Amino acid sequence: MSVQLPVFQPEKSDRFARRIERARGAPLRAGAVTTLQINVGKVCNQACKHCHVDAGPARTEAMDTRTASACIDVLARGKIATLDITGGAPELNANFRWMVERARALGAKVIVRHNLTVQFEPMQSDLPEFFAANDVEVVSSLPHFDAAATDRQRGGGVFEKSIAGIRRLNALGYGQGDPRRVLALVHNPVGAFLPGSQSALLAQYRTELGEKHHVTFDALYVLTNMPIQRFKHWLERTGQREEYEQSLEDAFNPATIDGLMCRSTLSVSWDGGLYDCDFNQMLELEVAGAPTIFDVDLDALVGRRVATAEHCFGCTAGSGSSCGGQLT
Ligand code: SF4
Ligand code: SF4
Question: Which of 12, 119, 120, 219 could bridge to 184 as Cys pair (CB 3.0-4.6 Å)?
Answer without folding.
Answer: 219
